[in-house]
Amino acid sequence: MNYLKRGLQHTFSSMQQRKTLFISLLLLQLIFILSSASLGVYYLMQILEDSKGVIEPLENANYNAQQIQKGAPFTEDFRAVYNSYISMV
Predict the structure, then answer these.
(1) What are the CA-CA distances from residue 20 to residues 15, 30, 31, 45 (Å)?
(2) Three-state SS across 20-41?
(3) Which pLDDT belongs to residue 81?
(4) What pLDDT digit, counting tens, does each position of 21-34 carry?
(5) pLDDT, average across residues 25-47
(6) Torsion angle defined by CA atoms of residues 44, 46, 50 and 51, in that order, rounded to the nearest 10 degrees
(7) C-alpha closest to that of 54 among 88, 13, 15, 5
(8) pLDDT tens-digit profile of 53-73?
(9) CB of 22 within 8 A of CB of 15?
(10) Backbone dihedral region of 35: left (phi > 0), alpha (psi from -120 to 50 degrees) or beta?
(11) All structural domains of the chain with their residue ranges
């Protein structure tokens, strides 16, 4: 247990001797964590928008088999569904 106490004392003394290095490393870690979190939130929102672009046209699609056999399209907006899917991938 004594080695942990010595290690902790050595760490604190090193931090006091090199305050600028310690503060700069702390700021770099903070910047890294904040940028990672903001990128995660941004891409989560993009994925949710793209999934909405896939789901909404499929909710409004024509599921009547007789109308589809007569030539009515399943959905009017295939390109938007495909583009949202590709963007999600």
Answers:
(1) 9, 15, 16, 37
(2) HHHHHHHHHHHHHHHHHHHHHH
(3) 85
(4) 999 999 999 999 99
(5) 96
(6) 10
(7) 88
(8) 888 888 888 788 888 888 888
(9) yes
(10) alpha
(11) 2-88
- CB count within 10 Å of CB 51 equals 14
| Radius of gyration of the chain, Cα coordinates, nearest whole angstrom | 28
Single-letter residue type at 89: V
Tokens of 39: 């990128």
Query: What's the rounded Cα separation, in Å, for the pair 88 and 50?
Result: 6
Cα separation, 11 vs 13, whole angstroms: 5
Between the CA of residue 42 and those of 4, 68, 83, what are the distances in Å? 41, 39, 19
pLDDT score of 67: 83
pTM of the predicted structure, to 2 decimals: 0.64
